[in-house]
Write a structure and sequence with these properties.
Elements lengths: L1 H13 L7 E6 L4 H10 L13 H21 L6 E6 L2 E2 L14 E7 L5 E8 L19 H17 L6 E10 L4 E9 L5 E8 L6 H8 L9 H13 L3 E8 L8 E10 L3 E10 L3 E10 L8 E11 L7 E15 L2 E13 L3 E15 L4 E16 L3 E16 L10 E15 L4 E14 L5 E13 L30 E4 L2 E3 L3 E12 L4 E13 L9 E13 L6 E10 L8 E6 L4
Parallel strand pairs: 1-4, 5-7, 8-10
Antiparallel strand pairs: 2-3, 2-4, 6-7, 9-10, 11-12, 11-28, 12-13, 13-14, 14-15, 15-16, 16-17, 17-18, 18-19, 19-20, 20-21, 21-24, 22-23, 24-25, 25-26, 26-27, 27-28
Helix pairs in contact: 2-3
Length: 595
């Protein structure tokens, strides 16, 4: 007992007290940018001034800073630097790491960068045909180590892209000539043999069948190795949603006949998932949605999603809307980049200007041309009972759908740069109750951020819709267009603008044009302020001409608070112009940007 007590007292007495220390940092003849780089590289700098810093931590950071600061100088082409670091007047390098420091009052870091070197020889050999090394890896350019690495990486990748998967650095000569301030950089590569894809070696899967994983991955065994094919296979597997982890890596050893196997390791997702959402506006009321998802229905990463949505709860326009749907998707059905889908939907819509009960079934394919480009083609049938200001009628149609989606946004829920485009064509043939025609829709969005730390983001959106063929009186009611509300012109009632029939009656239009602009300004790390303006046009004609329809506009302010799942959006908008009541305001709350 006494020995344990004495040991505890001894440890307490020998522990170093936590203190704050002063950092003195000086760099002779260094630019502001270089000083910033040096401070960023230092481990000691972030500890300065902190009251609870252990002296042993300060010493460890100071001793590590020699290599870190020299490395930062090499990155900028300084190959003859002098770095001294004094801890309370003693050179840090001379202090034993085991020494117990009672306290640390000051740390003095002095850096003399010396002259900046430029490239003399700048060579990477041999090079694959078409290799593009960085322009600044050339005689006379500043000899940054990062430039050398970039040149080597580009050269190795060029060999890999033509099948030499095991290309690597065989040797290097880096010679600093101090009198002339020149660095000669000569790197020799070993391309290795040209390889072909071997087998996909699969491990970690239990519920998803191995043969289906091979189908989905689409790795071209027997073809010349291409790193892009490995990346594509990885994307296809992740896209299914069946795997928490889908990691593809190249085998260490080359196989027989110059083949290269690819190892695929998986951690599967739980097969079932459910979720819900909520959105509110003062005009449209409360909207609730939910879904149940099975990620691996038959053991081949097939997805079954059952969803339901109720809108218009407590809203001021129309009544409550109900939507129930089921969607089945099978990845890699026709080839590795083409999925099959089939979906059924039952809807009851009770809007202010029309109501409809409809049932539809659709089946088709989704073609993934790349990570950014998706095409959809489908065929469907729909039956509906509708009531609008003109008449009550039933109709049945068969229809096709063709759409192209380009998504080059940097973030789907909170884009700051890039663009998004969606174009769709829906030809429909009448079986009863309506006439045949074509519905088109185009949605374009662009984003650009400017200023320090991209504080200001400009967002623009344009929408264009048309119905060709039948008149507004004979067209499918739910194919016509309205404007007003959160997705078109904020500040106006939901579907406030249509084709005026007189007597306070309106119906949807055959043409629609929507324009929106936002300026998003970051006020703090997670808080942004948004100003916006929207405009919408609805006309009788098939294509907007500005003469056979009406415009309305709205504007407002909003705030965004960033969360892990996207920004929480609160917008307050007022109507600016247009037919109908232009007083009052509308409130919109949701997750994600308005567009």
């Amino acid at each position: 007992m006494n020995r344990v007590f004495l040991l505890c007292v001894s440890l307490l007495l020998s522990a170093s007290p936590a203190t704050a220390f002063e950092l003195r940092f000086s760099s002779a003849s260094a630019s502001k940018e270089l000083n910033q780089s040096l401070r960023a590289a230092s481990l000691t700098a972030p500890l300065a001034g902190k009251a609870n810093t252990d002296p042993q931590d300060v010493l460890a950071a100071a001793q590590a800073d020699y290599a870190r600061l020299v490395g930062a100088l090499y990155e900028e082409g300084y190959y003859a630097p002098v770095v001294t670091i004094a801890v309370d007047g003693r050179e840090a390098a001379g202090i034993s790491p085991l020494a117990r420091l009672g306290s640390v009052r000051t740390v003095q870091i002095r850096v003399n960068p010396g002259p900046q070197f430029r490239f003399g020889a700048a060579q990477v050999t041999p090079l694959a045909r078409g290799t593009e090394v960085p322009d600044d890896f050339s005689r006379g350019a500043i000899a940054r180590t990062g430039t050398i690495r970039a040149a080597v990486d580009a050269s190795v990748e060029a060999w890999r892209e033509i099948g030499h998967a095991k290309a690597n650095v065989a040797g290097q000569e880096l010679t600093a000539k101090h009198p002339s301030r020149v660095l000669d950089a000569k790197v020799r590569l070993d391309p290795g043999p040209r390889l072909t894809f071997g087998e996909l070696i699969i491990s970690g899967n239990s519920a998803v069948r191995t043969e289906r994983i091979r189908d989905i991955a689409g790795l071209p065994s027997g073809q010349v190795f291409d790193p892009d094919e490995v990346r594509k296979a990885s994307t296809r597997l992740r896209r299914t949603g069946a795997f928490k982890v889908a990691a593809l890596s190249e085998a260490e050893a080359i196989g027989p006949n110059d083949t290269l196997d690819i190892n695929a390791q998986f951690v599967e997702q739980k097969p079932r998932r459910f979720g819900f959402g909520i959105e509110f506006s003062t005009d449209e009321g409360l909207g609730l949605s939910g879904f149940w998802l099975h990620r691996n229905l038959f053991g081949g990463a097939e997805r079954l999603r059952l969803s339901g949505e109720i809108d218009g709860i407590g809203g001021r326009t129309g009544g409550e809307d109900f939507t129930f749907g089921a969607r089945f998707t099978r990845p890699a059905t026709f080839n590795e980049d083409t999925d099959f889908y089939a979906e059924a939907e039952v809807e009851s819509l009770n809007e202010e200007n029309f109501s409809t009960d409809r049932v539809s079934f659709e089946a088709g394919i989704i073609r993934y041309a790349s990570d950014k480009r998706t095409y959809t083609f489908g065929l469907g049938v729909r039956h509906a009972k509708t009531q609008d200001a003109i008449s009550a009628r039933d109709y049945t149609i068969v229809y096709g759908t063709a759409s192209a989606e380009f998504d080059y946004r940097d973030n789907k829920l909170d884009a700051t740069d890039g663009y998004y485009a969606l174009a769709s064509l829906t030809p429909f043939g009448a079986i009863e109750g309506t006439e045949s025609g074509l519905r088109t829709y185009l949605d374009l969005r662009g984003y650009k951020s400017v200023g320090a730390e991209k504080k200001f983001t400009f967002a623009l959106r344009g929408q264009l819709g048309s119905v060709f063929g039948p008149s507004v009186a004979r067209a499918p009611t739910d194919y016509l267009f309205y404007s007003g509300g959160g997705g078109t012109v904020r500040g106006h009632n939901f579907q406030a603008l249509g084709v005026d029939l007189g007597g306070g009656q309106s119906i949807g239009g055959r043409s629609f044009l929507g324009l929106s602009a936002e300026l998003r300004v970051k006020a703090r790390d997670k808080l942004s302020v948004v100003g916006f303006a929207d405009a919408g046009y609805i006309g009788r004609e098939a294509f907007p001409n500005g003469q056979d329809g009406n415009w309305h506009t709205g504007a407002g302010l909003g705030i965004r608070y960033d969360t892990g799942i996207g920004p929480v959006r609160v917008d307050v908008a007022v109507p600016v112009s247009g037919p109908g009541d232009t007083s009052g305001f509308e409130l919109y709350i949701g997750i994600g940007q308005a567009f």
